[in-house]
Amino acid sequence: MSETAVEPLGQQPDPLEEARDAVSEPFTDVYHNPRESSSRMGLEARAYAYRAGASLAFGMGNMVSPAVPSPHMTVYLDSTFSKQYSGKDKIRAYVWTPDRPRMGSRKGSKESADPRSRRPAVINFHGGGFVLGQGTDDGRWAMAVMQALGAVVFSVEYRLAPGYPFPTPVEDCADAVLQIWRRADEFWIDRDRIMVSGFSAGGTLALASWVLLADYKRWGYEIKPDPDLAKGMSELSVDDTGDDDTSAKGQDGKADPKVPQLAGLMLFYPLLDWTQSRPRKRLTCSKPEFTLSRTLTDLFDASYLYPYEEVKSQLDNPLLSPGLMPDDLLDRLPPVQLCLCEYDMLLAEGRRFYERLQARKKESGAREVEKAKHAWDKPSGLLYSPPESMGIEYGEAVRVMAGWIGREEGNGSGEDLSQREREREEQGNLRHPEA
After folding, report:
1. What is d(CA 85, CA 102) in angstroms, rounded to the nearest whole number?
2. Where is the composition biased (Basic and acidic residues) (predicted)?
3. Contact between 135 and 156 (Cβ < 8 Å)
4. CA of 422: how far to CAs of 116, 248, 269, 419, in Å?
5. How many domains in the chain?
6. What is the CATH number for 39?
7. CB 351 within 8 A of CB 375
């Protein structure tokens, strides 16, 4: 039997109620993380040790055939949203591109102004519990989307906790999306075909960074206009209905700067709800023994949620728990695709978020990988062999993303997919999750 679930996700029973029935001791949702009393230096030392091990494992994993090529270039982005840690060139992104000679060339030419000559782009955020990870961790995913969609892939190294706790990683990711979008001419990408992906914590940050950009004033942020971008933005003006207007006038009567309109969000096993404790989440999992260890999650949570006495009162903040965003923001989301894991403590919250999307009639999809642990597609040690289900799920994700940008998979032709999808659906090969 394949590891990959092909059955559509429908309305699911409440796993918490089922789990409560299965245990005899009283259930409590209060958890006192012992790492919250650790010094920041102590947490940093532990994080450093885990990072070294993870870096070695991922480095060796990327060498397994077919080996992941080194990024073609590295770009540096400014930190502008952070109130405490802002500065120039604070955020690094590794870039893979299928068409290197055209990067940054012919700026201002007729060809550069034609979006049909541009590449789509994927901005990716790695996982690691907001504490571990680096931009090359998702190299196999980068290769999949680059080769299938002809996309330029940016894998962002946001700054990590405990040195940079919430909200800095969210702010870094929002900065990355905004600045890559603004620098589209330099990277030869089409602003209308930028997608964002993320794995685990990176999936959280992908969605949370969209929340920040979609309504930045609500969260107390400011976006300064880009004079160079404004000169050539007439083609991005909103239609007469104003439904997609993201440049509402401020109190001073001046129009706010434009913000990116993403083509879609591809989220792999994200954390979407911090209001539930880790013990509660483990209890909802059908195989609690297969979830991430308490040693790891205690380190992750104490590092990212700091100072906890201040953060605990805002665990439902959509920048922290993007799965809890209000309906008015949910209604503005671009297309969303979820990839979830059966033996993951984050499965239940992923299902709930998907059900919200379906209830609001949003363009969305979700798949579950059977008998898979959290981050099943990533190295868990020095001996790594890419699982067959990784190719299946990456392929399905790419197929969905191709539909978002109207591009045929594999050849970068730009051919519209609507007829192809109709044919596949008639043949019974295209699976849509049930509402």
Report:
1. 34
2. 108-117, 417-435
3. yes
4. 24, 38, 29, 5
5. 1
6. 3.40.50.1820
7. no
Q: Is residue 234 part of a domain?
A: no
> CA 403, 70, 338, 305 torsion: positive or negative?
negative
| Separation of alpha carbons 407 and 414, rounded Å | 4
* Pairing outcome for strands 152-157 and 87-96: antiparallel
- The encoded tokens of residue 79 equal 């930190």
- For residue 256, what is the DSSP state? P
Rounded to an integer, what distance in angstroms lies between the CA atom of residue 373 and that of residue 268?
12
Contact status, residue 401 vs residue 145, Cβ threshold 8 Å: yes
Judge whether 262 and 332 are in contact, CB under 8 Å: no
Q: In which residue are the tokens 């245990």 written?
A: 23
85 phi and psi, to 5 degrees?
A: -125, 30
Residues of the chain with pLDDT below 70 are 1-29, 99-116, 230-257, 408-435
Bridge partners of 122?
153, 195
**Which of 349, 308, 313 lies closest to 166, judged by CA?**
308
The residues that bridge with 74 in the sheet, in sequence order, are 94
pLDDT digits (tens, 9 = 90+) for 332-343: 999 999 999 999
Residue 235 phi/psi, 5-degree rounding, is -70, -10
User: Quick check: is 238 in a domain?
Assistant: no
Assigned domain for 247 exists: no
Q: Two tokens at 363?
A: 């363009």
Asked whether 401 and 266 are in contact (CB, 8 A), the reply is yes
Residue 90 lies in domain: 15-223+254-426
* Tens-digit pLDDT profile for residues 115-168: 557 999 999 999 999 999 999 999 999 999 999 999 999 999 999 999 999 999
**Parallel, antiparallel or unpaired: strands 336-343 and 264-268:** parallel
What distance in Å separates the CA atoms of residue 225 and residue 231, rounded to the nearest whole number?
11
On whether residue 172 sits in a domain, the answer given is yes
